[in-house]
Model the fold of this input.
Amino acid sequence: MLDQEKYAIVDIGSNTMRLVIYTRDKSGKLTESENVKAVARLRNYLSENGHLETEGINVLIHTLQGFQEVTRHHKLKEIRCVATAAIRQATNQEEILERVEKETDFSMRILSEYEEANYGFLAVVNSTPFENGITVDIGGGSTEITYFQNRKLIFFYSFPFGALSLKQQFIKEDLPTSQELKTLRKFLKEQFQTLPWLANKKLPLIGIGGSARNLAQIHQEYIGYPVAGIHQYMMTAKNVKGVQNLLLSMDFPEIQRLEGLTRDRADIIIPAIEVFSYLMDYIETNKFALSRKGLRDGVFYEEMTKEFELSIFPNVLEESFYELASDFDINLNHASHVSKNAMMIFNELEKCKVFVLDSKDLKYLRLGSALYNLGSYIDAEASHQHTFYLLANRTIDGLLHKDRMTVALIASFKNREVFKRNASLYEDWFTKDELAKYSLFGAIVKLAYSLNATKRNIIEAIRIEEPTAGQLVFEIECNSDWMPEQYQAEKQKKHLEKHLKKSIELQFHEELARQPQ
Done:
């Protein structure tokens, strides 16, 4: 029933409040189906002694009552309502909690500094490929920093300032003066230098939350980025400083109109980027990554995994593959055998010294072969083009954008000309040698796929011999009649021949163990 499939979280931040509804899909994954945002700026209603003024509580209640109209309509199984810095820092928490309980459908839970930081950490390690890194989540009224190693939280800290409170404290007008900027930078230096475990780590800085998202979106719009999605988007220190300088060169109306920047963040984006820029210098890193998954996702990762007493997925990419398999009806048994065929061919070609594979290549090969021809789910006739489009434009947790594009190029391989056409928009992402290698991988995967054309899993072993410099002989052992596979493989071997500049002879045999003695 529908009411058993939907969950929601209300996230009460210092700058914005959000209601996000998740629907459990056929793979069991909770996917975002509704996202309602309100710019409440509760931090502005905190008095000097930390009291959340009545006007601020009224804004909170009114916004929650608007959200409950939506939650009542959707008949949700469970609703989580969590609050962060603005409520955590309020001295009249009890009054706020009582009014929320009495006047709305929600029971509000105030997250501790540790919980807020830990949920951000969980979101990052469960949705990105990073084994080690530093996360930063700058909200309206607090900034959470974590340091993790081998996907384990080592240190965390919550600073009692965020983009909105920095704006209030240091910037009088919409934009900072040079003196205000100098004072702000001095303050950030003093604050972050109280965390010696951050210094010189030389690890990726992973940004969480709205300000980090806006930074990535501004940069993507500015450079005309050709790929959909911002999750796992990578920027260099030069890129971050470029956006920083761009904003400082504009007047406020120009900033408000800037593509990629939500209008309600126009006055707080500069202090937020100052935080990212200083942290990159302090950590001595050239890598800034954007995680679109944050606190809300961390709460749900905890919910999804609580019955297993395990809050971190063992393998992010594996989880993503099974989601793709479910969404596009991938035959897992067939995918496994195509991948097995491909790896046998690769290993044999490696023995022939055609190439040497590294661990990243192996990842690309396994994924590319398992996802080969995924686009047939939409249309068999144009399956290669659908495969490329789907993989190039779908966020795949655990794959950075360049890695995702590599897998898309391999899994959609039809011939060298189509490969070049697909790669043309992204040529500056790859060296010529990389493109040549991935085109070769695609040709091998295409042959491996043809060797399981009837999905009967008949191939038991593949050995390759090189009797002459210009020829390769594939000895292919089968456990059943191989005529359909032979027909398809003979058609497709030409792609590999062109790449290797060698002729290929396919010799099919009955499996040795089944031959009469």
Observations:
- The chain has a mean pLDDT of 93.
- Residues 131 and 151 are 5 Å apart (CA to CA).
